[in-house]
Amino acid sequence: MELTEKVPIARRRRRPAVSCITCRKRKIRCDRKEPCGNCLKSKGSTCSYRDRGHAPLHPSPPNTTTTSASSQVDDGVNDDHDELDVATCLSITSPSTPASRIDTASLGIAGTFHIHRDTRQAQPNVGAFSIAHKTRYFGQSHWVNSIILVRGLFSILEPHFLNNSSPIFESMRECKSLARTLKSRAVPYWPYEPTFDAPDDHDALLESYISISESLFRVIHIPSFTRDFHALCTSESPSAHSTRPDTAFLIQAKLVCAIGAAHTDTVLRPEATQWVQEALIWLSKPDFKHQLSLQHLQSHILLLLARKAVGVGEDMIWISVGSLLRTAMYMGLHRDGIIGTSPNSSLFSIEIRRRLWNTILELSVQSSLDSGGPPLISLEDFDTKPPSNFNDDDLSFNNADPKPDGIFTPTTISLVLRKTLPERLAIVKFLNDLSSRGDFQSALKLDSDLRAAHARLAKSLSPLTSSRHVAILHVNCNAVITHINLLLRRHLLALHLPFFLPSLTQPEFTFSRMVAVDTAHRLWRDVFPTENIEVSNLATTASCFRTVSMQVIIVLCAHLRAQVADPISGGMIREDLLAILEEAKHWTWRCIEGRETNVKGYLFACLVKANVDAMREGLDEPEVVQKSVQAAEEAIDKAKGVLVGRVQAMTSTEPSTNAPTAAHGQDEGLALEGRNKEWEQLQQTFDFVGDTDGLEGGTGMMLMDGDNWFLDFGNGLFV
């Protein structure tokens, strides 16, 4: 019998690969076109198939998506960090999204952005529904969506900024390093045991908090808190049964002082920042059941208000508000009456729960507007009534009756603001909810509703200006009214900004452009013409102004550039708007002279002002670009000199006992760069903080240094 040698048969794949190589690597569904839809969305991925003989099932139309030449992505996967880029993430979550809905724009020093235009909107190609940058997603109400208004400015300047002969990028790197060195001094030890050395002007700080912040957001019971606060600051026991103050109350006292310092005395800014960071450490302890208490809710709310006022991780407030909201709902604060509480609940307990829930609703709506995220709450999700119009002393009596309308109490202002909550919540949902159609007619209806609510609020608060009410309530009337106006007008600006860009070419949206420009003008003028220090401090530290200030500059810049380029107007522009750009340049510089560590706000203000002035002079485009770049170079050099002087002054003194500097085995100065990454990420924000009247004395901050000004201003250089 003849034996035959068995020839090994090559194992064949049972099912041939029909997906492209990139989609198989990402483990996502491929439409098998050539190139496939996922590779088109990735803006730079190479689409190829392992089986060369395999033909795509469906022919694909030519790629018409706008893609920046400088935006290069290697198959959407970062091999070094094992992360997908934003475009890939969008393709994974929305596989049916047409490629034309995502426009990748590289704005040079501003970084690379993925502009998402939602085709479900009734008005096609109106504004940008959202913008994605790196791992972050910003809804339509986020201020960074206004960057598309100055996209043309950055596109013109980009080749000059990328030129190696320009010192701007290198100077910005040095400023970033100097800023990290300055910020590293504020980091407390871990673990942290709370202590409190009362500042000399602790009474003034408490009064400032009560007269402004507590008037808007009810958190504490003023009589009892004031009594225990004074006992703590005078080294007396706040309780007859203990010789050591309650740690939770000690943290609350620090946060109240931090908020008060932001409103009245920015000289205490370093101390206020450290108080907020210390509260963050203590509240992060893994004692979960202890968190289900009204005192913890009060501490959490005060922490969020302090982070907004002082500027510590303000861009992540929305995330923390979500945790706060769910904690409150877990405790039953969203249910009214005795539901969620004992049947024998006192008037004090019921009213405190209502006040805290009302403040949590305010934080939810405001943080949603700031972050561009959906509010994740609706009017149907709770039945808790607004707080009653009680004086705090009345809560000690269960049979007390609330004051009638027209009688002012410390709760009246928050109640009047609560009446505008439905209109503001509707605007935030219109801007950020995925189910929103975003059509122009709906925007006009929301505009009308908000204006009517604002008129009713103004009528209700008009008696507050009388000296009798102010003396009784201890309310800083001007500062509170300024804050409310800033808050409501910011909703109006966010509502019309999506229609600003098409208004430049489509007359039917002219009303939105007029409203946006007028509102931006009012927002700025609400703050800077006044000589009242308290009003200026509140407005420049209030969250609604910090994030909107850059919107004001961008909107006015876009409007003025359009006016100059319009042949019908003959180059005529509004001088009052041009004056605001000049004021912004001076104000940002005064902030750097104080304690600000981020120089990019001043750089941008100088760049915008120089560009508008050059266009107004009728210069040719090369000369306009040259003058703009020259102004930016002079601004960055001038600001770097200030930071260098501050670092030299810091390293020549003894390190603070609470600052982890050379005592931990690190050299002082620039050697501190790269340490404490967690705290640096926590502090990343793009807020305005400043005192317009006392910045020369080392007060005021603007655009706290981090990676978030224009969402990594010069993204590729600082990461």
TrEMBL record:
It comes from the Eukaryota. CDD domains: fungal_TF_MHR, GAL4. InterPro entries: Fungal_TF_Env_Response (IPR051430), XnlR_reg_dom (IPR007219), Zn2-C6_fun-type_DNA-bd_sf (IPR036864), Zn2Cys6_DnaBD (IPR001138). SMART domains: Fungal_trans, GAL4. One of its GO terms (cellular component) is nucleus. Pfam families: Fungal_trans, Zn_clus. Residues 51-77 are annotated as: Disordered. GO terms for biological process: DNA-templated transcription. The keyword Metal-binding applies. Residues 19-49 form the Zn(2)-C6 fungal-type domain. Keywords: DNA-binding, Metal-binding, Nucleus, Transcription, Transcription regulation, Zinc. GO terms for molecular function: DNA-binding transcription activator activity, RNA polymerase II-specific; RNA polymerase II cis-regulatory region sequence-specific DNA binding; zinc ion binding. PANTHER family: HEME-RESPONSIVE ZINC FINGER TRANSCRIPTION FACTOR HAP1 (PTHR31944:SF131). This is Zn(2)-C6 fungal-type domain-containing protein. It comes from Apiosordaria backusii. The lineage of its organism: Eukaryota, Fungi, Dikarya, Ascomycota, Pezizomycotina.
